[in-house]
């Protein structure tokens, strides 16, 4: 345990957080930058005396529970969380759950892709960001509850109006195998995440097909490179599918593009104009 480095690190992280960041009033005569020690301690659910001793390099080795509270209170990134554990002499455990926050640069990229439908998916295949053309091609994700944006749940548990399973994609069965293997690997990476555990349990209970695929214990399937969406307004849209991993975030950018000069490119052009305004039939 490097007490001095730990103390300096905690102090630097505390001083960068404003009271407004954590929902606390600034109050009069606030002379210290960032949070006060007692405020950081309160947010971490430890005593002010204990926290003060840590910042003075006099505290005992903190437990994993204390470190988790400090990481939460000080809003540490994954890299900062690991660094905190190493300074405390406690090897970091697995991250608590799949990251869902998408970097601003990735959000900007989605908006700048011409005639491409693009989404960002989490480790559990939840759609966590999308551009307008993806919403027009698949569905208006902003109009559905967050739980229904998970593509694995969507595939195996519906809804499937008019037989359009998972937006009418041509490779639904292949995607089901890939998605199950992808989710199994994510569950191994995040064994302590209750949301991932609940998702797997819900799928096992509600879908015999998922249960059969899950029982195989396969991992590592590759996504399809081309698929066709059966769209209720413009008909079949055949697209190339490229998947790019986001370094350090356990997230993927999925980009759908049509061959230049093809009818599918014309369909995407039409969807880019129509948007979601006339998308009366969800997929």
Description:
The chain has helices spanning 3-15, 37-44, 48-55, 64-73, 78-87, 104-112, 132-137, 151-157, 172-189, 194-206, 208-215, 263-274, and strands spanning 117-121, 127-130, 226-231, 235-246, 251-257. With 283 residues, the protein is of the alpha+beta class. Strands 2-1-5-4-3 form a 5-stranded antiparallel β-sheet.
Identify the notable features of this structure and list them briefly.
alpha+beta, 5-stranded antiparallel β-sheet, 12 helices, disordered C terminus, 283 residues, elongated
Summary of the model, kept short:
Helix content is 43%, strand content 12%. It has 283 residues and is α+β, with helices and mostly antiparallel strands.
β-strand amount: 5-15%
User: Which percent bin holds the helix content?
Assistant: 40-55%
Which radius of gyration do the C-alpha atoms yield?
Answer: 23 Å
> Biggest sheet, open or closed, and with what strands and sense?
5 strands, antiparallel
Topology (elements, then pairings):
Elements: H1 3-15, H2 37-44, H3 48-55, H4 64-73, H5 78-87, H6 104-112, E1 117-121, E2 127-130, H7 132-137, H8 151-157, H9 172-189, H10 194-206, H11 208-215, E3 226-231, E4 235-246, E5 251-257, H12 263-274
Helix pairs in contact: 2-3, 2-4, 4-5, 8-9, 10-11
């Amino acid at each position: 345990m490097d007490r001095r480095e730990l103390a300096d690190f905690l102090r630097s992280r505390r001083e960068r957080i404003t009271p407004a960041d954590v929902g606390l009033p600034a109050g009069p005569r606030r002379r210290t930058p960032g949070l006060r020690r007692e405020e950081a301690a309160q947010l971490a659910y430890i005593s002010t005396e204990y926290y003060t001793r840590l910042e003075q390099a006099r505290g005992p080795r903190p437990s994993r529970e204390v470190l988790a509270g400090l990481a939460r209170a000080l809003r540490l990134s994954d890299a900062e969380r690991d660094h905190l554990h190493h300074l405390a002499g406690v090897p970091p455990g697995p991250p608590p759950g799949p990251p869902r926050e998408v970097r601003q640069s990735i959000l900007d990229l989605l908006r700048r892709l011409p005639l491409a439908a693009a989404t960002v998916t989490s480790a559990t295949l939840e759609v966590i960001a999308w551009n307008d053309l993806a919403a027009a091609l698949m569905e208006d994700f902003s109009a559905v509850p967050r739980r229904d944006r998970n593509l694995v749940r969507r595939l195996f548990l519906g809804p499937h109006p008019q037989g359009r399973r998972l937006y009418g994609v041509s490779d639904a069965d292949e995607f089901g195998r890939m998605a199950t293997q992808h989710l199994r690997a994510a569950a191994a990476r995040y064994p302590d995440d209750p949301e991932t555990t609940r998702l797997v349990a819900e799928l096992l209970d509600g879908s015999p097909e998922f249960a059969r695929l899950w029982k195989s214990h396969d991992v590592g399937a590759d996504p399809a490179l081309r698929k066709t969406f059966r769209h209720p307004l413009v008909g079949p849209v055949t697209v190339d599918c490229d998947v790019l991993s986001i370094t350090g975030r356990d997230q993927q950018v999925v980009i759908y593009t049509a061959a230049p000069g093809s009818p599918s490119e014309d369909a995407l052009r039409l969807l880019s104009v129509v948007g979601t305004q006339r998308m009366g039939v969800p997929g």
